[in-house]
What does this fold into?
Amino acid sequence: MTEARMSEPLPFTDVSDDALDWQVLLHSGNATAADRDRYQRWRGLSAEHLAAAEDAEALWGDIGQTEAAAQLPAAPRRRRHWGSAIAASLVLALVGYGGWLQAPALLADYHTSTGERRTVTLEDGSRVTLNSASAFSVNYSNERRTVSLREGEALFEPAADPRPFVVDSGGEAVQGSGAVFSVRRQGRATAVVVAQGEARVGQRLVQASPDAQAQTAWQRGKLIFNGRPLREVIAELERYQHGRILVSDSQLGAMEVSGVFDLNDPHGLLRTLEQRYALKVTYLPWLAVLY
It folds into this structure.
């Protein structure tokens, strides 16, 4: 993710990542007139830069642009008495991690550990990209192709085949033979994002989402937030790290956060929050506390 204050985007090799990084700066409230001039020059470097800039601008608008985060003053550094919360969270972290090691990974054909992403090609040529701590099994017959998502999240790119391609997520059936879509399972809840085409979720027909690129940015190692409450950001970050992350109070949890996080640097995620929003983080075994 970008630093708290910067004059140029980070030197990612992917021009699309540079373009996203520029959007974070330009909407952070810290951009100067010189920064905006540099951005215009960057856009004009090549046709590739211009296309990436236009895509990033459209993407940023699609995920709900808000000026609240830019106008929000830096969070004050404050002390809280959260000893009991730390103890409780530590217990939950250890129990939760132990539960993941036992199931559902042991029952699945394919799985990833916490922080791991993996792409597999199935026997029919379909591609499945698993997100962190995810697991699924495959059952192909002459009549249909069924993938059972046991835990976590996966992006599906079904190969052309006359048999229906169905993802079973805890009893929720998602059929998208001609679509590219992701399915996320959290307990009994299922969320579907269609990136291309359309998919049938139960009796509903779901069209491609305008912000699908942002919602599935994890497949290329990014998390994109625009004006999201800190508590929601932390809930997402927890999926990619062992242990728990605790926000010390509800006021801090409501603070709006914008940015592009790099999942390939998991230890830098909280560090960037510290720098950008003047937070403090206390690290304990299996637990980090923001205040």
User: Anything to note?
Assistant: Residues 83-102 form the longest helix (20 residues). The two ends are 20 Å apart (CA to CA). The domain at 118-215 is CATH 2.60.120.1440 (Jelly Rolls). The chain is about 30% helix and 30% strand.
